[in-house]
Amino acid sequence: MPNFDRRTLLAGAAATGAIAVAARAAQDDKVEAAAPDLSGKAILITGCSSGFGRLSAEHFARLGATVFATMRNTPRPEAEELQQLASDEKLDIRVMRLDVLLDNEVADAVGGAEREIGRGLDVLVNNAGLGITGPVEVQDMEATRLAFDTNVFGYHRMVRAVLPNMRQRKQGHIFQISSQLGRVIVPFAGHYSATKFAVEAMGEQLAYELVPHGIGVTVIEPGGYPTKVWVNRNRYTTELKERSLQMHLDGYPQVVERMGKEDGSSRTADPMDIPRAMAKVLGMPQGTRPVRLPVSGGGIPQTAINEVCAKTQVEWLGQSPALGPLVRAVHNT
């Protein structure tokens, strides 16, 4: 077991800026080496009404994939717009209704997609998610349940739905859209980090467990991007603030005043970074795809944490007769 004392970790944190620059270059080189040809792939994506999900559906289809673009509460204008785009560009995008909170809609969407292609899916992109900001004390059980049910249990529902037929075919890949905040923590971001930390753990554990089945897992860790996620975040956060008890709001007046007023329009990074990165990962040979991939238009503060965690896993379990081969395969050691 490695001995990482507090001084070692602090030194690593102080060096994060320099490490992040080098790691980004190395990671870019690693991913760029793959040709992003997705012809013949059947890909299901959650949360395609906007943001990373919508862009990924378009990008993957333009690279030759059959894309099942799912979103909740259809019919809706976003579904019609995406279907029209697919028709205009002759892309194989099939819009489906799927709310990750509902077991029956998960089963219907995955089962329907598998019947349409006559086999299991090649790729699942677990993307649908939400954020509700504010102090942890202010997060009531309604907000807490919604955050975990969407960001964690929703991912779990989807994984359980696609894995039986992926395992039968001994192939497949799962993307878990996480966040930098799945490895580092910003105060007053509600339970967003807590849910994304869970996504990170779930994704890495799945990666180990699915090695014998030829199925890969990559946790994508985006930085801040100008998607519409903050619009829904403001709505949920405003609703939380309006129903919160004053006894919980009193401790954080300046933070509470800002709740529900986030403006994501100042972000300038290109959201296409995310679908491009995923496509290039799929172009890499199985067994060489990264278990974690930071994608950011700015800094990557979690790099040192990712490196320490990978080293710890390998040194802790790498020599285990039963678990060592799984851990070493995922970390390419």
Structure description:
This protein is α/β, with parallel strands linked by helices. The protein has a single domain (31-323), classed as Rossmann fold (3-Layer(aba) Sandwich). It has helices spanning 6-14, 16-32, 51-62, 77-89, 103-117, 141-169, 192-209, 229-243, 246-249, 253-258, 273-282, 303-317, 324-330, and strands spanning 42-45, 66-71, 93-97, 123-126, 172-177, 215-222, 292-295. Strands 3-2-1-4-5-6-7 form a 7-stranded parallel β-sheet, sandwiched between helices. Helix 4 (77-89) links the parallel strand 2 and strand 3.
Quick rundown:
With 333 residues, this protein is of the alpha/beta class. The chain is 51% helix and 11% strand.
Salient structural properties:
7 strands, 333 residues, seven-stranded parallel β-sheet, disordered N terminus, single chain
